[in-house]
Design a protein that fits this description.
By secondary structure, the chain is an all-beta fold. The chain contains no helices and 24 strands. Helix content is about 0%, strand content about 50%. The strands form six sheets. It has a four-stranded antiparallel β-sheet, with no helix packed on it. A four-stranded antiparallel β-sheet has the order 2-3-4-5, with no helix packed on it. Strand 3 and strand 4 form a beta hairpin. The radius of gyration is 17 Å and the shape is globular.
């Protein structure tokens, strides 16, 4: 599968790509710079600083966006104004890392310690009324979170476990019945961000593994997309037909001059379509 480079290596730690027609196409993150990047139709990129860290972004049904920031959540209004909500914790050694929206319009974002200490992270949920709930404790590097096309299951990666897990989901119980879904392939790389296609396949970025793997709904590995850089962070479907896979990469901790394409945005056409992004209902 041919991978094309979309941008120059403009991000130090590219993450969290999301396609939404509501905001004109693709947004992704330069996470540790605290910036949201936007790709215009002509290929130009704009950058907007939000907070010390920007961990995840999703569109709001009323317009604007919901954002995971350093130690909590933020809301972008239709006029572009960003309001930081109250911090969820005070420990400066812990930051938000990745998230997504459930089928009922609630926004989740998970955390990690800067040093990667085991069990220091949690997954937090922002409800449409502005209330927050901790839905999962004791995680290490909370990463990709996305729901199946029918919304009955949620796929989740705590990178330190070297696997993707699956939860059952309904509105009242939320996430329940956590169990292993797929282990990372042998060799370098651990599961990072992920997305789900319209056939129920789960696409997982392998950080340190230089690839994106597709797992069939039964958890078997059936596709591998190789990239020219090792630190592959996340992926999403986009384009007007949701038939392009956009892939973010990082150059965190790389030596100067190593992997010159690292930090660029890449794309490919995998032959399946994605599902429309789930929006925050608040």
């Amino acid at each position: 599968m041919k991978v094309e480079q979309v941008t120059e290596p403009i991000a130090y730690h590219g993450e969290g790509p999301v396609w939404s027609e509501a905001w004109g196409g693709l947004r992704w993150l330069d996470m540790l710079a605290g910036d949201v990047l936007s790709l215009a139709a002509d290929g130009t990129v704009t950058r907007r600083h939000i907070d010390t860290v920007v961990a995840a972004v999703r569109p709001r049904r009323r317009g604007g966006a919901v954002i995971g920031v350093t130690r909590g959540f933020a809301l972008e209004d239709t006029d572009g104004k960003v309001t930081l909500l109250d911090s969820l914790w005070s420990d400066e050694r812990v930051r938000m890392n990745e998230g997504g929206c459930d089928p009922d319009g609630r926004f989740y974002c998970g955390s990690m310690a800067y040093g990667g200490q085991q069990g220091a992270g949690s997954v937090h949920r922002l409800d449409p009324d502005g209330s927050t709930t901790t839905v999962l404790d004791g995680v290490t590097i909370s990463n990709g979170l996305e729901w199946s096309p029918d919304g009955d299951r949620a796929y989740y990666a705590d990178t330190a476990t070297d696997r993707v897990d699956v939860f059952d989901y309904d509105r009242e119980r939320g996430l329940s019945g956590r169990r292993p879904f797929a282990a990372a392939p042998s060799g370098p790389g651990s599961p990072d961000g992920l997305t789900v296609d319209a056939e129920g396949g789960v696409w997982v970025a392998l950080y340190g593994g230089g690839s994106v793997c597709r797992y069939a709904p039964d958890g078997t590995l059936d596709e591998v997309v190789n990239l020219p850089v090792t630190k592959v962070t996340a992926c999403t479907f986009g384009g007007p037909e949701l038939d392009r896979l956009f892939i973010t990469t990082s150059r965190e901790h790389l030596e100067p001059g190593a992997e010159p394409e690292a930090g660029a945005l890449f794309t490919c056409t995998p032959g399946v379509r994605g599902v429309p992004v789930r929006e925050y209902a608040g």
